[in-house]
Specification:
Distance between the termini: 53 Å
Bound molecules: S-adenosylmethionine
CATH class of the largest domain: Alpha Beta
CATH architecture of the largest domain: 3-Layer(aba) Sandwich
CATH superfamily of the largest domain: Vaccinia Virus protein VP39
């Protein structure tokens, strides 16, 4: 790809989604954008797609297709396991201790991909329901990609997908097998509300959240974007709330509005949090 064309995509992806791509990753443009050119019936492949995007007012749907094709949707049930154990053994007991019986707890899963992360949380909550003092959970799951959210809402997973991380007991309890496909049952499915949301744009949801999962998405952004997103998440999280980041992510060196919790890898609280381990 010519360097001027690479720059066109580099600037577009940065502006639209925050994704930073370096020249060594330009091969990804070739492999992921060919299907987009085909979808738009452009016989000239990526060259024709680039031409169409260079026009003074390119079709926003074409830009959206390019952005969605370039995002990485890698995920799995109970990914990294430890955050879900911390959620179960640290966060849920703290909520039981500090919130009145019957409270509604608000959870935001900010880069939900194909749904495995919010559904893992929902199953963890369901499994602990009897200990939760009548607490109700309002779980919002968002992602920039409407295509991946459609997959999440369908909640049908392949054998390969459920084999990655799903304990067999939970698989048997919460899924129905239909041939090669495992369909999540409605009692878990209906616990999640899916909505499109770009982390670069204002967070317009009302109120604040008690728990935010924003895992394995900040890694794709530059320092300035990470800081901006973390500071805006801080404005959307309760003072006694919890933030989960991915294993390769941190707040350190980016913002002082959150602090890590010692011994609880990946878990952060607002700097003024009253939480004591
Ligand atoms: C690697 S997946 C992580 C999924 C899940 N959180 C996990 O840890 O398994 C990253 C997700 O972030 C989404 N994403 C990328 N840029 C985004 C943005 N600017 N706003 C919201 N979501 C974004 C992608 O569409 C993708 O589904």
């Amino acid at each position: 790809m010519k360097s001027a064309d690479f720059e066109l995509y580099q600037n577009m992806l940065y502006k639209e989604s925050g994704l930073v791509i370096t020249p060594e990753k330009s091969y990804l443009l070739d492999s992921r954008l060919s299907p987009i050119a085909k979808r738009w019936n452009l016989d000239g492949g990526i060259v024709a797609l680039t031409e169409a995007l260079r026009k003074p007012a390119p079709d926003p749907k074409m830009i959206k297709d390019v952005v969605e094709a370039m995002t990485t949707n890698e995920t799995s049930f109970f990914r990294d396991l430890r955050p879900f154990q911390i959620f179960e053994t640290v966060v849920l007991p703290y909520l039981v201790k500090t919130k009145p019986a019957g409270s509604t707890i608000r959870v935001w899963c900010a880069a939900a991909s194909s749904g495995q992360e919010p559904y893992s949380l929902a199953m963890t909550i369901k499994e602990n329901q009897h200990k939760l003092n009548g607490m109700k959970f309002d779980i919002l799951a968002t992602d920039i990609s409407t295509e991946i959210l459609d997959i999440a809402k369908r909640a049908k997973y392949s054998q390969f997908e459920v084999q990655r991380g799903m304990p067999i007991t939970l698989l048997m309890k919460y899924f129905v097998q239909e041939g090669e496909t495992w369909s999540l049952k409605d009692d878990i499915k209906t616990m999640i509300r899916f909505e499109q949301l770009n982390l670069l744009r204002p967070f317009t949801m009302p109120g604040v959240f008690d728990i935010v999962f924003c895992r394995n998405v900040l890694i794709y952004f530059d320092q300035q974007t990470k800081t901006d997103i973390l500071n805006r998440i801080n404005g959307k999280i309760a003072k006694d709330g919890f933030l989960f980041l991915g294993g390769a992510e941190t707040v350190l060196g980016l913002t002082d509005r959150f602090k890590p919790l010692e011994g609880q890898r990946g878990l952060y609280v607002p700097s003024e949090s009253p939480y004591k381990a």
